[in-house]
Amino acid sequence: MAGTAVKVTWYTAGAALDFWFDFASTYSYPAALRIRPLAREAGVTVRFRPFLLGPIFKVQGWNTSPFNVYPAKGQHMWHDLERVCADLALPFRRPEPFPQNSLLAARVALIGLDREWGEDFCVEVYRAQFGEGGRIDSADAIAAILAGMQIPAAPVLEAAQSDANKSRLRVQTEEAQKLGVFGAPSFITTDGELFWGNDRLDQALRWAKRAS
Amino acid sequence: MAGTAVKVTWYTAGAALDFWFDFASTYSYPAALRIRPLAREAGVTVRFRPFLLGPIFKVQGWNTSPFNVYPAKGQHMWHDLERVCADLALPFRRPEPFPQNSLLAARVALIGLDREWGEDFCVEVYRAQFGEGGRIDSADAIAAILAGMQIPAAPVLEAAQSDANKSRLRVQTEEAQKLGVFGAPSFITTDGELFWGNDRLDQALRWAKRAS
Asked: Quick one: which of A13, A147, B124, B153 has the most CB atoms within 10 Å?
């Protein structure tokens, strides 16, 4: 299965929304778990676009999550995320350490998003990390997630770590930066409107619908 | 009118919520305009609590609004606020300069909140600043807002600038800091739950109701 590249075509006709996320981003967890059913209901096609926040944060002078840079904000975020997940009936468990290195997960997601299991993989990574408080920052952790999805891990990990795929993630991260993405989750409509945060998912879907 | 101090009693019985805000805070504008009708509907008593973000931001190393410190975030905020206001059918006009010095407005609000016109004054200050894009950072601007409310400005401004009232605002700002407030608007329920942001107003009201 891992060898078959089924390229998903990106809809340019009809309502569409780009979902930009970093696997280490806390509020991307509820967004990733909500976006597919909500988009289906709204008649909007969503494209999952993993990228890395690290290089973007570095430009702002941060070497870690702003939730670590500003502890009062971080303390509120964990508590708020717990309340948000409770309202959505999503399991929540705070992972340690935070943030986790999301590089390998993002590379694997790019491979998966060319095939049919990419979006499910993204959801499983978020669930493992923020639903179960597990780690996602090692080849073993990612292999376990793939195994849980009945996907042979070795060829996927090899493809993920190829120079071509590494460069693809760099390019995608640069694209995010050029589009003005400064945090995650971010949603961008086909007419270029940027919405930041899980709290803006519904508004972004409405905008995508209107813009189509 | 300005001479009659009618102290408003704070309800301890029944559902109650503290609304913490700085007049320079952008997202406090939709919160201030929404909170009274929403709270009435929810059966929650709200206490308006103006404070100053400046000393709190200084601890985090900022000498101006984080929206100025981080321009990408600031750019998104203005555009997002415009969309949020459009959704709520609230007028919006970006004020210059930003942020404005909110010291005098906060001092006057404290005087008003001891009388019957405090909440209306808060709403009018936000409307003048973010609905009309006007200034709120001078005695003339505040006097004009009071005049529009048929309140003689001179005695109010004098009371606002008294040592006792200045110290009261300092104490209130210290209280916000002790409660963990790090941004505005913030909402705190009687059981100590802190909610940050206009996006959390509905959740905070539900919590206040449950906690009572």
From this structure: B124
pLDDT in tens, A91-132: 999 999 999 999 999 999 999 999 999 999 999 999 999 999
What is the per-residue pLDDT for A6? Answer: 45
Q: A192 by DSSP, 3-state: which?
A: coil
Q: What's the predicted TM-score (pTM) here?
A: 0.89
Count helices and strands in chain A by DSSP H and E runs: 10, 4
Distance CA B95, CA B130 (A): 6
For residue A51, report the phi and psi dihedrals to the nearest 5 degrees. Answer: -150, 180
d(CA B12, CA A39): 43
Cα–Cα distance for residue pair A173/A106, rounded to 1 Å: 10
Q: What is the ipTM of this complex?
A: 0.86
Q: B62 touching A, CB under 8 A?
A: no
* Identity of residue B124: E
Strand, helix or coil for residue A194 = strand
Cα separation, B211 vs B194, in Å, equals 13
Rounded to an integer, the average pLDDT of A192-201 is 97
Kindly list the distances between the CA atom of residue A55 and the CA atoms of A26, A47, A95, A102, in Å, as whole numbers in the listed order. Answer: 17, 22, 22, 12
B162 touches chain A (CB under 8 A): no
Nearest CA in chain B to A86: B203
B175 Cα to chain A: minimum distance (Å): 15
pLDDT tens-digit map of B72-124:
889 999 999 999 999 999 999 999 999 999 999 999 999 999 999 999 999 99
Nearest CA in chain A to B199: A199
Q: Tokens 């409770």, residue?
A: A86
Query: What are the extents of the domains in chain B?
Result: 16-211
Instruction: Write b or e for each residue in A81-119: b if 16 or more Cβ atoms lie within 10 A of its Cβ, otherwise e.
Output: bebbbeeeebebeebeebbbbbbbbbbbbbbbbbbebbb
Find which of A80, A195, A206 to mutate to test the B interface (most B CBs within 10 Å of its CB).
A80
Domain B16-211 fold: Glutaredoxin (3.40.30)
Q: Which of A209, A184, A210, A211 is nearest to A40 (CA)?
A: A209
Give me B9's structure tokens: 């009693």
Report d(CA A197, CA B138) in Å as an integer: 35
CB distance A126 to A88 below 8 Å: no
